Amino acid sequence: MDFRAFPTLTELDERLPVYLVSVGHWDHQEPTYRANGHPDYQWLQTVSGRGKLQSGDREWTILPGQGFCLYPHEPHAYFALEENWDVYWISFRGSLASPLLQRTGLAGTGVYHVTEPERIASLIGEIYKTTQSSKDYGGIDYSQLLYTLLLELMKTTAPGSQAAEWGYARLRPVLQYMERHYDRPVTIKELADYIAVTPQYLCQLFKRALHMRPMEYMNRERINRSKELMFQEGGIRLYEVAERVGFESASYYSSVFKRLEGMSPDQFKRIHGLK
């Protein structure tokens, strides 16, 4: 079933960091040609069928489950390659629209793989339903759901042809392994072997999905566990904390804690009233 909504925007809405301009769904996406581009940021999520996107001198074939991002004022065209091209779409603006897309990895107009396309389509549908029911705080409600959608895209999208290789889904087993073994030394090779990739490729996955290296993530996990320990066992000594969360020495633990938290472990204990 086709649907579309263009919520009335107030001045308050337009001050939100991201705000909804339009949302909809086409059972059969019609050919679209825009010589001057579109004024808004757009995300279009395919459900079934195949299409083609052209922008500048680039061209992409859009497969079922993939999505494509359109940046404002960039000339483009897209059209179906099969009779029924089923597409959900959303348009938005706001001062944080570009930074959020950049953080999500949607760095420009193009086609992106989505590991959970049904979830993205469902969220767009939910935003549409909200436009039909929420009036008192409409713009804020739409913005909240739109932000959720962008965060979901951050976890599930990747450029090029490596859908299953990128994103949180690929790293989830490694992150769970880290959570189970934070209390002992763990090497990058050990983590890479766990999901049968090279250490170099593991670092690429971490950089793409989390914007940090594996050991930096591991240290953050250890520091968080150390804070839990300090609350659970108020009288625990610093060297005991360091040892139980996998640091080789209390001094190294303290330096990592200060770098990540902006204060020493002792300062952390004092501001939280711990002995």
UniProtKB/TrEMBL annotation:
For the HTH araC/xylS-type domain, which residue ranges apply?
172-271
Q: Which domain of life is it from?
A: Bacteria
Keywords of the record, alphabetical order, are: DNA-binding, Transcription, Transcription regulation
Keyword Transferase in the entry? The reply is: no
Full protein name: AraC family transcriptional regulator
UniProt source species:
Paenibacillus chungangensis
